[in-house]
């Protein structure tokens, strides 16, 4: 084999197998790709597609039990078969990597500065400790850590997630590497922090001239940043090309399906999502043929016998697709848009009649947690304002989307509502009745009407109960006879698209999407009026999400349900919500009809939040102006006088003296501006922000 | 931070005081100091026995609270722990013996900790390989062996070695050879040779326990993300494991250190008896067999103080190792 390579990194026919007692698992099956100097390659795939394993193979960081075949060439030299000592000279200096979870990626017992200095000194023995520390401070400054001299002395636990990821980037660029691999660098972070980190990554790339391989499951993240994309499925690259080729003219049905199934912030809410049925194959016993064939709407017989190779499209070596029918798709004989059938909306006669009345009203809800100190004599030293005067209402048959970053009080709000107890302050009214005045018995009856679906479908189902018992559990609480229970369980399983014959199986036998359907069935079995959905799709893979969202929409139509939909993914919220409330530090800063909020946001925070969400459309993404919020979410223990968003507000910076004075001293009350209710003194001047960001 | 350590120290001190007072009460209610004199021939008169017991402060006719009060008052005002039944003061008995025990304990604990940590890490890194399995089986065997059996086995081995070599290389009876002439150097070597077997016996017991805990702590750390980060910076696997892995895996060990010290103390009492050392362990065991309440309480106080020191030390070490608990 000719091992000459002009590319910076070339991966040739890479396969990685993990031997396991129950049969070996081949996580990567013949992957070919290359990265040139200074290039930005995005590798996209769902969990289990082999994208992380292939990058760890490049770094030589796979466990020693992994069997690797093929070849990896970096700057023309093969990396496979080299000793750990030889590879360690290259790691950090030639290739560096940024990992997904910044919370656990830094050693807890060393200071941030020491960990950066360590990376420097490992590759430059002559560097003095003092010089390394000075350079570490400089690097922290580059990645945007305020007060770098002081923060270099901090330990990882004193840093927030976003700051730790910045420190990780500082470590990665410390030795000016030629290649940076970023393995899901923003997955664990909030959107506003994600936007900051992507900006830092881009800056680091410009500064070092390094090539970047960005591995992600989020098509939106690569759309605005990458030059080329490789899409992985079941351990192989199934499509590759430039960003525009892959997004605008995808040729592999999987890519087409993935793009169609993603709720897109720019288009969501107008059309129904197109789900990608089925689930990714198990890599331990792969059937012959194309691994996507079972889910593919245009699969032909040949697809089930031979696995298609990656064939180039129109003779372009950089644009290739692993599909037998690639020519038909690229030539237009098969229409991309019609490849997947758009699910029909619920027929009119099946829709439930709903009288427009308010089913849930929350008025000035408050939940403060005391902060105490002292082990013997506890005394209060402050309070956490988790929920600080939240008001909203939901009408029957409608959906309210509650959005905000982590730590803004979304979860505390819904827990307070679900408790159906007298709140610390404020009022919760369900079906027109104030819950604080109810007796215990009335409260128990009322619980039938308000149910919840939790985020993690794996953790929220008891693994030792068959699903029929899980689903029937709310009924046992309300003393429904056994015969009636099993009938209701069957009905509700059918309703959510689960086969009732699977009722006696256990949760681990189901896939993530099915498990979330079990969670929905359990919530619906009491025939509730209101369903609280706490991040119901955020733990699911992109291709599974669409099916669950469609199901939720259909159920709402059929049963006339009202949803309180809590999520951090704004595109999903736009898809499903009629009204939206945006939360920041325990308060609702803006609320109104979905179309108003998304199209004409009036609060600077809403505007920043929306602009931080990446859109899976490269053309749109390139033309968008991003408002990067400074800093992190302040701690809810802090007492901020005036408007509590002031510390990060881009509009505040643009206001004149008097305007700023108003923000500093007066807590803005919510008022009606255009179509939405906004808590900002200066919503009328919101367009200043657009002007400011369009000036370089 | 200093405040925290001081607070913990006071906590431990209160606990030690409670332990000692409870020990006094327990011994006073269970032990029968008069029994020792009743069996004598000729049997001393009741008055004689009574006056002896009153002199020692252990007369069962005095209410136990009153005796405890006198004992505490004596301790506070005179620094006295009372007299033993051999007409020596408990304090002088303890000063004579403490050095002997401490030498054994400190050496044994330090060696146990070092060896235990080292083989624990080694076992974790080589999980399920032959060396790991061998270490595991060996540790379990030692943990399951009573300490006197271990002592006697070591003696048998030493005797075999001495016989093979034809010289008395390893001495294992007593603390030193009585009546040995020679300079400082000769004395030192003699003591070291006597120290060898009991130290090994104690260290083996400790190391077996430490290594199990260290192994599991290290296994948790092995798959940690920051080890991968350290390697991605350019450390080799071995160096990343030592610099980033062992350092973190040591943190939970410092807590275990405090708890295990109590076990080592108990083991040391038996070891002293087996090797005929006249230390605090022997004093404790003899005090029980001879129904000597004052000596018993003194020995318990000694142990309590040692555990107090070990506990405080482990808190200090924990804070030194883990920046997350520093306040």
UniProtKB/TrEMBL annotation, chain A:
GO molecular function list: ATP binding
SMART domains: AAA
Membrane topology (UniProt): Peripheral membrane protein
PROSITE patterns in the record: ABC_TRANSPORTER_1, ABC_TRANSPORTER_2
Domain ABC transporter, first and last residues per copy: 9-259, 371-610
Subcellular location(s) of the protein: Cell membrane
Protein name: ABC transporter ATP-binding protein
Natural source organism: Arthrobacter silviterrae
Automatic annotation (TrEMBL), chain B:
Xref: InterPro entries: MetI-like, MetI-like_sf
Bilayer topology annotation: Multi-pass membrane protein
Membrane-spanning ranges: 12-31, 104-125, 137-161, 192-210, 256-275, 295-321
Localization terms from the record: Cell membrane
Species of the source: Arthrobacter silviterrae
Official protein name in the record: ABC transporter permease
Residue ranges of every copy of the ABC transmembrane type-1 domain listed in the record: 98-318
Source taxon at top rank: Bacteria
Membership in a protein family: Belongs to the binding-protein-dependent transport system permease family.
Listed Gene3D superfamilies: MetI-like
Assigned keywords, A-Z: Cell membrane, Membrane, Transmembrane, Transmembrane helix, Transport
């Amino acid at each position: 084999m000719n091992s000459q390579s002009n590319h910076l990194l070339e991966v040739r026919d890479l396969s990685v197998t993990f031997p396991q007692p129950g049969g070996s698992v081949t996580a990567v099956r013949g992957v070919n790709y290359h990265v040139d100097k200074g290039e930005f390659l995005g590798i996209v795939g769902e969990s289990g597609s082999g994208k992380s394993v292939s990058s760890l193979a490049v770094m030589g960081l796979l466990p020693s039990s992994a069997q690797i075949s093929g070849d990896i060439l970096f700057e023309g030299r093969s990396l496979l078969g080299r000793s750990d000592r030889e590879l360690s000279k290259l790691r950090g200096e030639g290739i560096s990597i940024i990992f997904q979870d910044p919370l656990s990626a830094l050693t807890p017992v060393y200071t941030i500065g020491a960990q950066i200095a360590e990376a420097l000194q490992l590759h430059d023995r002559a560097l003095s400790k003092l010089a390394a520390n000075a350079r570490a401070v400089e690097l922290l400054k580059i990645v945007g850590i305020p007060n770098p001299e002081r923060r270099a002395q901090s330990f990882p636990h004193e840093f927030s997630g976003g700051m730790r990821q910045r420190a990780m980037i500082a470590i990665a660029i410390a030795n000016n590497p030629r290649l940076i691999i970023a393995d899901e660098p923003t997955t664990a972070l909030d959107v506003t922090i994600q936007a900051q980190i992507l900006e830092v990554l881009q800056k680091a790339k410009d500064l070092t001239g390094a090539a970047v391989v960005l591995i992600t499951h989020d098509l939106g993240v690569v759309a605005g940043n990458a030059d080329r994309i490789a899409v992985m499925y079941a351990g192989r690259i199934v499509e590759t090309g430039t960003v525009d080729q892959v997004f605008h003219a995808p040729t592999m049905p999987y890519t087409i399906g993935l793009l169609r199934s993603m709720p897109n912030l720019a288009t969501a809410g107008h059309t129904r999502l197109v789900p990608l049925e089925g689930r990714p194959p198990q890599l331990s016993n792969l059937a012959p043929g194309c691994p996507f064939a079972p889910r593919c709407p245009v699969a032909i017989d040949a697809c089930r016998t031979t696995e298609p190779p990656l064939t180039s499209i129109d003779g372009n070596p950089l644009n290739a697709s692993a599909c037998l029918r690639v020519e038909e798709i690229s030539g237009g004989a098969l229409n991309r848009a019609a490849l997947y059938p758009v699910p029909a909306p619920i027929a009119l006669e099946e829709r439930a009649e709903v009288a427009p009345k308010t089913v849930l009203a929350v008025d000035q809800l408050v939940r403060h947690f005391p902060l105490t100190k002292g082990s013997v004599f506890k005394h209060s030293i402050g309070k956490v304002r988790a929920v600080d005067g939240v008001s909203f209402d939901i009408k029957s048959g409608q959906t309210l989307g509650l959005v905000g970053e982590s730590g803004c009080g979304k979860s505390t709000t819904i827990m307070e509502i679900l408790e159906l107890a007298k709140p610390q302050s404020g009022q919760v009214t369900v079906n027109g009745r104030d819950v604080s005045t109810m007796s215990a018995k009335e409260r128990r009856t009322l619980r039938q009407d308000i149910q919840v679906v939790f985020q993690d479908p794996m953790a929220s189902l008891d693994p030792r109960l068959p699903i029929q018992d899980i689903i029937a559990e709310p009924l046992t609480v309300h003393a429904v006879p056994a015969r009636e229970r099993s009938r209701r369980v069957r009905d509700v399983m059918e309703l959510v698209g689960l086969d009732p014959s699977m009722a006696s199986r256990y949760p681990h036998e189901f896939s993530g999407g099915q498990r979330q359907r079990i969670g929905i069935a359990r919530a619906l079995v009491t025939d509730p009026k209101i369903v609280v959905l706490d991040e119901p799709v955020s733990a699911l893979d992109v291709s599974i999400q669409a099916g669950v969202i469609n199901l939720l929409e259909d159920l709402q139509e059929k049963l006339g349900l009202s949803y309180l939909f809590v999520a951090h993914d704004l595109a999903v919220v736009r898809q499903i919500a009629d009204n939206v409330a945006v939360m920041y530090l325990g308060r609702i800063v803006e609320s109104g009809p979905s179309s108003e909020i998304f199209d004409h946001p009036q609060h600077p925070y809403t505007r920043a939040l929306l602009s931080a969400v990446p859109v899976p459309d490269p053309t749109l993404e390139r033309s968008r102006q991003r408002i990067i919020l400074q800093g992190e979410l302040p701690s809810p223990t802090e007492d901020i006088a005036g408007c509590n968003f002031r510390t990060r507000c881009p509009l505040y910076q643009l206001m004149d003296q008097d305007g700023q004075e108003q923000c500093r001293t007066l807590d803005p009350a919510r008022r009606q501006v255009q179509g939405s209710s906004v808590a900002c003194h200066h919503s009328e001047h919101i367009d200043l922000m657009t002007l400011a960001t369009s000036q370089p | 931070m200093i405040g925290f350590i001081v607070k913990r120290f006071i906590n431990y001190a209160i606990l030690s005081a409670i332990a000692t007072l409870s020990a006094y009460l327990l011994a006073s209610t269970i032990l029968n100091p008069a029994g020792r004199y009743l069996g004598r021939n000729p049997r001393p008169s009741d008055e004689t026995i009574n006056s002896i017991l009153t002199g020692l402060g252990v007369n069962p006719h005095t209410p136990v609270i009153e005796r405890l009060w006198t004992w505490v008052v004596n301790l506070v005002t005179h620094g006295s722990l009372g007299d033993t039944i051999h007409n020596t003061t408990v304090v002088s008995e303890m000063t004579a013996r403490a050095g002997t025990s401490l030498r054994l304990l400190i050496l044994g604990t330090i060696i146990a900790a070092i060896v235990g940590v080292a083989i624990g890490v080694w076992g974790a890194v080589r999980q399920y390989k032959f060396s790991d399995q061998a270490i595991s089986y060996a540790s379990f065997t030692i943990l399951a062996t009573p300490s006197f059996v271990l002592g006697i086995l070591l003696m048998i081995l030493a005797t075999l070695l001495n016989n093979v070599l034809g010289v008395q290389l390893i001495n294992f009876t007593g603390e030193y050879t009585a009546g040995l002439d020679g300079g400082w150097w000769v004395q030192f070597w003699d003591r070291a040779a006597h120290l060898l077997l009991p130290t090994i016996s104690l260290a083996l017991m400790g190391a077996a326990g430490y290594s199990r805990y260290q192994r599991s702590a290290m296994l948790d750390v092995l798959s940690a993300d920051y080890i991968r980060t350290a390697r991605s910076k350019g450390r080799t696997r071995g160096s990343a494991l030592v610099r980033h892995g062992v350092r973190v895996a040591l943190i939970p060990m410092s807590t275990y250190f405090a708890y295990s010290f109590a076990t080592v103390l108990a083991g040391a009492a038996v070891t002293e008896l087996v090797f005929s050392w006249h230390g605090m362990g022997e004093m404790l065991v003899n005090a029980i067999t001879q129904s000597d309440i004052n000596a018993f309480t003194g020995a318990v106080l000694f142990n309590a103080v040692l555990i107090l020191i070990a506990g405080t030390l482990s808190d200090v070490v924990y804070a030194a190792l883990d920046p997350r608990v520093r306040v």
